[in-house]
Amino acid sequence: MVDAEDLRSFERKLVRVQLSPWAPVFSMRTFLALALAKSVNFALRKAKVSGGTALPGLLALKIAPGFIHHLTQNFSRGNILVSGTNGKTTTTRMLATVLDGWGIAYLHNRAGSNLLRGIASTLAEKLPSFKKWDLGLWEVDEATVLPAVSQIKPKILVLLNLFRDQLDRYGEVDKIKKLWVQAVRKLPKASILVLNADDPAVAHLGHNFPGRVIYFGIQDKKSSQKTLPRFADTRYCPSCATSLSYQAVYASHLGEYQCSVCGYSRPSPDFSAASVQCLSPVELEFTARSKVGEAKLKLNLGGLYNVYNSLSAIATSSALGIDFNKTISSLNKFKPAFGRTEEITIGKSKIRIFLIKNPTGANEVIKTIFTNSNGPMAHQPWAGKKNLLLALNDKIADGADVSWIWDVDFENLLGKMRHLIITGTRARDLALRLKYAGIKKPDLVTEDFSKAIKNALKRKENFYFLPTYTAMLEVKSQLNRLGLSREFWRD
Amino acid sequence: MELRICHLYGDLMNIYGDDGNITALAKRAAWRGITPKVFPITIGDRLDPNFADIYFFGGGQDQQQIAVSSDLKKVNGKLLKRAVEKGAAVFSVCGGYQLLGHYYQPKSGPKLPGIGLIDAYTVAGEQRMIGNVVIELNRELEGISRRRSAKLVGFENHSGKTYLGKGAKPLGKVIVGYGNNGEDKTEGAFMGSVFGCYLHGSCLPKNPHFADFLLAKALERRYGEIKLKKLDDSAEWQAHWTILKTLRVVR
């Protein structure tokens, strides 16, 4: 028989084990929300509903507004938030790879929902547990940075870049910038800001931050373009709004800049990239330089934008105290996320997926696709015609306004394509854009995804697939049915 | 034959893909053997009122709109008015359209003066008006072909509410969307050869009848009345009609 003394000590032990990964202040509401979210999660999995990774979180937040706050405060190494217009998913996954290599146990909203509900869903799924989690690693949508910072009070905030994207959601690029200024003000002084020095608006956020700021940027004049591209948005001085002058332009408005009026200039990067070599659409080499030394990176990813993504991962790892060389070796083993240059083989066709979302991203992807060992297409003659399958959707996650396609330099595809297939809910708009780019009539224009895929596959050739976000999910689910691609949320 | 397009403040007012309108005008001219030439004007430049056939003025962010308004106040506003008196056409979208009116009243702060080329004024609204737009062309708009469609399609994204005065006529009546102010079902405006609207998309590529109408108006300045050669607009009309069908405006 168990006496009262034994029972009390047994209960104490039980409570200590169960609660140790949770916040010390623990509300009833959060508990109920957690219970409900877990039941919903279970039900969704049983019903085999695909992609329902945000519903449990959404419900949890409705019941307990403090849900995310309570469940993220007890990690021994705190939380990292990663945001930016382009590159958040890839950067967060690079960090995940580094953390895996270092043996840190972390929670990560891997399946892709980067809104508050996505973070809440991940917490609901993994907590409570007997495993001790050291860190929360969160990919965060640009418009969600402010509430996320308020609720999570992260140890590290990583801001990659700010480009025009989904203006129908955000209204204006400046609106996001203003939200980020407020978010930085809410950061605890002990937090660390990791910022892209090459982006004037982002770099400026570190200006008045009382805590530690780590900058990353490219330092490789050979990779620089001659002028700012037509579609570059933030080329104004964040201090005095004058047009900035650039000594080097790497991509869109990213580069080495200076204001001739107030003297604001690009901060010196703590982590920089030199000797950048874009070898092919899926291979990149550069030398990462830091105060502690330098090392060569050979990535299984292409595109100049991935230089920035990996630099930000290196900077963030250093903020965590992870050894520089260990970080480099982890990144060299990195495998890209679904839809971010994943390669799928179907019969005789290799399909390489490059997600497109906004003018900067799309332009960089086009350059990357036609990269060969002589360098990105923008600088060197291209190598061989490629087959392209383009898919433009206008659902909420893609952005309902497709005007942005008129700021993509599709003219750079002229004479470089063998087969061209266009699909998506706004296939006709995209076909129209390409007509005005002077491109020959596509092989097929159709809103029907399965028709488009079948047409591509029947040619038994390699294809580059450039979809917007939901178009990529649609095609992936079709390919899943053919049994050829991993289920995205187990990725 | 030549088409001279002046792109007003294209380096600042370029956030919503409105450059597609310049692409449409230039290509539709080129496809007919007319040489298009595009001239940019930016802050600090002086406009030549004798030179361009058509001026294009796109949309931008609030910050940039303030900077442009300042520049227009100096001398370019008057020069643009003179250009219009001399027969030039103007096509403006969103921020550009607002600046062609009398003024823009932001939520707080002083009025931003416009040029007054269109009898209209704009007031900042509480709600942002975002979404697909379909309008029925104003019957009073003469010279535009309504054979394939009497509508214009586009996408709007603005918080400014524009109200037209007696001198300006609406470009069309709203069938889907908010239009000028979400209240009176008007969208856009025109006065003589000056046109403005809130249609992004870009507007002209998927409204080829409107693009050709503006093209003819622009060429009229130096070449008199022109009959434009017919083009194969099947891609344009497919884009136009697909939107009408998706929005259930037609079956």
Report on this structure:
The complex is a heterodimer of chains A (491) and B (251). By secondary structure, chain A is of the alpha/beta class. Chain A is built from 16 helices and 17 strands. Helix content of chain A is 35%, strand content 20%. In chain A, the strands form three sheets. A nine-stranded mixed sheet of chain A has the order 2-3-1-4-5-6-9-10-11, sandwiched between helices. In chain A, strand 10 (283-290) and strand 11 form a beta hairpin. In chain A, helix 11 (305-320) runs antiparallel to helix 12 (324-331). Chain B has helices at residues 19-30, 62-85, 95-100, 208-223, 234-246; strands at residues 2-8, 35-41, 54-57, 89-93, 103-105, 112-113, 120-137, 151-164, 172-176, 186-187, 189-191, 194-197. Chain B contains five helices and twelve strands. In chain B, helix 1 (19-30) crosses helix 4. Chain B is an alpha/beta fold. The A-B interface holds A 164, 167-168, 171-174, 230-231, 233, 236, 241, 359, 400-407, 425, 428-429, 431-433, 435-436, 438, 445, 447 and B 14-20, 23-24, 27, 61-63, 67, 128, 130-132, 155, 157, 159, 200-202, 205-206, 235-236, 238-239, 242, 246.
What can be said about this structure in brief?
The complex is a heterodimer of chains A (491) and B (251). With 491 residues, chain A is of the alpha/beta class. Helices cover 35% and strands 20% of the residues of chain A.
Give the tags:
heterodimer; A: 491 residues; alpha/beta; 9-stranded mixed beta sheet; 6-stranded mixed beta sheet; 16 helices; disordered C terminus; B: alpha/beta; globular
Our count of helices of chain A gives 16
Question: What structural category characterises the helix and strand content of chain B?
Answer: alpha/beta
Query: What's the number of extended β-strand segments of chain A?
Result: 17
Characterize the largest beta sheet of chain A: strand count, sense, and whether it forms a barrel: 9 strands, mixed
Task: Give the strand tally of chain B.
Answer: 12
Low-confidence stretches of chain B: none
- Helix-strand category of chain A: alpha/beta
Portion of residues in helices of chain B?
Answer: 25-40%
Q: What is the number of helices of chain B?
A: 5
N- to C-terminal separation of chain B?
41 Å
Using the CA coordinates, give the radius of gyration of chain B.
17 Å
Largest interface: chains, residues each = A-B, 32 and 32 residues
Low-confidence stretches of chain A: 7-25, 377-382, 486-491
Report the biggest beta sheet of chain B as strand number plus sense, adding barrel if it closes: 6 strands, mixed
Which value, in Å, is the CA radius of gyration of chain A?
23 Å
